[in-house]
């Protein structure tokens, strides 16, 4: 099959596998027999020398049942946080039992958005995952929902999986889902929708195919979150697949048939640029004129002369969004803090020193620290 040829989950040395709540949980309990079949797949991949990172949802749904919370624990943020605290223990216990029965050592890694957005913490997470894999453990990741607050949470594990894949230096991501791939429209509502095996580029038409939230009501992000994850992965040069998780041994099946949707990777961006492109939060925004936008498109640095507006309270080195007349076109590391950037906006280099009181830097965002989105 074409998709298998483009993304071979068997050949990929380091793979991230994400499992959604709707697959894992049924009537408030883990679908243990099914999960055992996934673990058998993971053990087979490990025996063949592949390193695996798991991203497992399910804490909120599991905890909600134990606490007797309505709406699967998603009625309020407080409920979700309490449910996650209770459910994560149960979730880990099941993973630990099944992985150890298969001769594998489980490592629990709970992450917040901030852990992957701050470069120093991101590098720390990367080093920890790397070490765990080198030691032969299977990292099982989830969002640390109990402490993550609305503004600083992923909310869906699809994007967490894509960001974690970057941090882990993975060469592929498989999102196991309650659907076998991306369809031209939500197949739950439109019987004539057809599966798209390969997505070369996430165009606005592709993005518009995702409809509504989670199909099952247990999950969070629905198809839109998976497309957002594919976008992050592609920018990092990592192919991402959505594959059918409703069947037993879903990884072995996907490896054998390639049935699903594969989002092929963009050109391999360098690690720093990939990290920049994948940032979900920024500390501020530089609005630029059409001339500067054209220069950026040609790979040039952003000069203060092209900046028309500075928003946010960022420090030098923070990630800022760069917005042209047609919307946000780039992310970059600010060469100045917000106050100095604001002071020199619109000014040519030769007059900046008088305003700043020190010799100006070559650019407000240097091309090496800038990535076009
Ligand atoms: N274009 C589409 N193609 C496939 N599924 C779609 C599409 N648009 C919306 N969906 C819905 O997204 C659901 C998958 O998201 P979700 O239930 O959150 O999965 P998971 O729990 O595996 O993360 C599908 O069951 C389907 O109802
Ligand atoms: N972190 C949450 C899951 C969030 C999530 O993405 O759920 P899903 O859409 O089912 O993959 C939990 O453990 O319940």
Automatic annotation (TrEMBL):
SMART domains: PUA. Substrate binds at residues 57, 145, 157. Pathway: Amino-acid biosynthesis; L-proline biosynthesis; L-glutamate 5-semialdehyde from L-glutamate: step 1/2. Its EC number is 2.7.2.11. It comes from the Bacteria. It is found in: Cytoplasm. GO terms for cellular component: cytosol. Its main location: cytoplasm. GO terms for biological process: L-proline biosynthetic process. Residues 284-356 form the PUA domain. The keyword Glycosyltransferase does not apply. ATP binds at residues 18, 177-178. Keywords: Amino-acid biosynthesis, ATP-binding, Cytoplasm, Kinase, Nucleotide-binding, Proline biosynthesis, Transferase. InterPro entries: AceGlu_kinase-like_sf, Asp/Glu/Uridylate_kinase, Glu/AcGlu_kinase, Glu_5kinase, Glu_5kinase/COase_Synthase, Glutamate_5-kinase_CS, PUA, PUA-like_sf. It catalyses: L-glutamate + ATP = L-glutamyl 5-phosphate + ADP. GO terms for molecular function: ATP binding; glutamate 5-kinase activity; RNA binding. Catalyzes the transfer of a phosphate group to glutamate to form L-glutamate 5-phosphate. Belongs to the glutamate 5-kinase family. This is Glutamate 5-kinase. The gene is proB.
């Amino acid at each position: 099959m074409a998709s298998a040829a483009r993304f071979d989950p068997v050949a990929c040395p380091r793979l991230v596998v994400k499992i959604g709540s709707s697959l894992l949980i049924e009537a408030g309990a883990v679908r243990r027999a099914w999960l055992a079949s996934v673990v058998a797949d993971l053990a087979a991949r490990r025996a063949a020398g592949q390193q695996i990172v798991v991203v497992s949802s399910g804490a909120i749904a599991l905890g909600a049942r134990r606490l007797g919370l309505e709406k699967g624990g998603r009625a309020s943020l407080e409920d979700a946080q309490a449910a996650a605290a209770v459910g994560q223990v149960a979730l880990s216990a099941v993973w630990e039992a099944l992985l150890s029965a298969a001769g594998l050592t489980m490592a629990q890694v709970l992450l917040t958005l901030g852990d992957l957005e701050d470069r120093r913490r991101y590098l720390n997470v990367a080093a920890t995952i790397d070490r765990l894999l080198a030691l032969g453990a299977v990292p099982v990741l989830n969002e640390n929902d109990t402490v993550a607050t609305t503004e600083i949470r992923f909310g869906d594990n699809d994007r967490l999986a894509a960001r974690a894949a970057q941090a882990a230096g993975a060469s592929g991501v498989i999102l196991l889902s309650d659907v076998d791939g991306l369809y031209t429209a939500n197949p739950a509502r439109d019987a004539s929708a057809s599966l798209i095996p390969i997505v070369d580029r996430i165009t606005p038409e592709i993005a518009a195919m995702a409809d509504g939230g989670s199909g099952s009501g247990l999950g969070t992000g629905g198809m839109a979150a998976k497309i957002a994850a594919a976008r992050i992965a592609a920018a990092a040069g990592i192919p991402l697949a959505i594959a059918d998780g409703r069947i037993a041994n879903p990884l072995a099946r996907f490896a054998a048939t390639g049935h699903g949707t594969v989002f092929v990777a963009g050109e391999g961006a360098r690690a720093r640029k990939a990290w920049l492109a994948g940032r979900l939060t920024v500390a501020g925004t530089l609005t630029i004129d059409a001339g500067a936008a054209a220069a950026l498109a040609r790979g040039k640095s952003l000069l203060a002369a092209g900046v028309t507006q500075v928003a946010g309270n960022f420090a030098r080195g923070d990630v800022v969004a760069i917005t042209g007349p047609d919307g946000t076109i780039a992310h970059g590391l600010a060469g100045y803090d917000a106050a100095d950037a604001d002071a020199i906006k619109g000014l040519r280099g030769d007059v900046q020193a008088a305003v700043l009181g020190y010799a100006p830097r070559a650019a407000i965002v240097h091309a090496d620290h800038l990535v076009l989105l």
